[in-house]
């Protein structure tokens, strides 16, 4: 594998110098790290649980289910879900408040099907 990135301009592919795209990646990583500072350990636990559980269960997850599974209060889960949805768009909830997708997993059928094994299939937004 080489370290080249090509930029499509019209019908032409132009190589981007490694020093340019490597600096862009460094800046992007720093920016993402600073944007994630609001997340507590519980935020990470909820997000990681949602991704795994949505893929395993295949149906929307209610705040009560998340609360019970992670031994957090329903109010704490509701606050975390609000913050994840508003600040980073990590997740989307349906009209009933149940989580239907937590990036990169969704329970809604999309054109992007991920197959980890014959028994492990989920959709991605």
Walkthrough of the structure:
With 125 residues, this protein is α+β, with helices and mostly antiparallel strands. The protein folds into two domains: 5-35; 41-124, Beta-Lactamase (2-Layer Sandwich). Helices cover 46% and strands 24% of the residues. It has four helices and seven strands. It has a three-stranded antiparallel β-sheet with strand order 3-4-5. Strand 4 (99-102) and strand 5 (105-106) form a beta hairpin. Helix 2 packs across helix 4 (74-88) and helix 3 crosses helix 4. The protein is globular. The two termini are 28 Å apart.
Summary keywords:
2 domains, single chain, 125 residues, alpha+beta, 7 strands, Beta-Lactamase
Short description, anyone?
The protein has helices at 18-35, 41-57, 63-70, 74-88; strands spanning 5-9, 12-16, 91-93, 99-102, 105-106, 112-117, 120-124.
Give the number of helices. Answer: 4
Q: How many beta strands in the DSSP annotation?
A: 7
Q: How much is the average pLDDT?
A: 87
Rg over alpha carbons: 18 Å
CATH architecture assignment name of the largest domain: 2-Layer Sandwich
Encode the helix/strand succession as letters.
EEHHHHEEEEE
| Count of domain modules | 2
Biggest sheet statistics: 3 strands, antiparallel
Strand order, largest beta sheet: 3-4-5
Tell me, what's the shape? globular
* CATH class descriptor of the largest domain: Alpha Beta
Stated plainly, the CATH topology of the largest domain is called Beta-Lactamase
Q: State the distance separating the first and last CA atoms.
A: 28 Å
Low-confidence stretches: none
Strand content: 15-25%
Query: Percent range for helical residues?
Result: 40-55%
Class inferred from helices and paired strands: alpha+beta
